[in-house]
Amino acid sequence: MKRLLLLATFAFLAAALPAGAQMVSTLPVPGITIYPGDPITEDMLTERRFRLTRASLEAIIAGREMLVGKVARRTLLPGQPITVNAVENPKLVRRGVPVRLVFVEGGLTIITYAEPMQSGSAGEVIRVRNTESGTVIVGVVQADGSIVVGKS
Question: Which residues belong to the signal peptide in this entry (predicted)?
């Protein structure tokens, strides 16, 4: 909820600014170099003030809560703003590493193992191959790292 409120506030401010106007804002930035694949923690971040335009407001992350727990997709340099596409949710499922596959329909639940054909974060839809039959199916990655298929 806080994230949505923060995003709405920045969107409102960005829309209210004339195209070339600038505003000063305090943003979370890395205090140290963060490398690709590193999980971002609170102690890695500090704050710094920047002059921003409307375009830059839409491309950068404006709150710490939007960064903590994410994983760096590229190297993040100390003191530099972090763009939206520079971080991602942690991958709970890795391509080729067997995972628990749960089929749910009505009152029936079947649990087996499958091989993911792609990596995925919680809530993502990915393809997996049933290791017993070789059938490729689509499922949703769960917070516990399992994959659910079928209707619940």
Answer: 1-21
Number of folded domains that form the chain: 2
Give CA–CA dist 127/113, Å, rounded.
Answer: 13
119 domain residue, yes or no: yes
Sort strands 136-141 and 87-88 into parallel, antiparallel or unpaired. Answer: unpaired
| Chain-centre distance for alpha carbon 108 | 32
Q: Is residue 7 part of a domain?
A: no
CATH number at residue 38: 3.90.1210.10
Locate all alpha helices (DSSP H) within 1-152, ordered by sequence. 2-16, 54-59
Torsion angle (degrees, nearest 10) of CA 91, 29, 41, 120: -10
> 50-76, pLDDT tens digit by residue?
988 877 778 899 899 999 999 999 999
Report yes or no on 4 lying in a domain: no
Two tokens, residue 40: 């971002």
Q: What share of the chain is helix, strand, coil (3-state, %, to 5)?
A: 20, 40, 40
Per-residue pLDDT at 5:
46
Convert 20-29 to b/e letters by CB count within 10 Å (16 or more is b): eeebebebbb
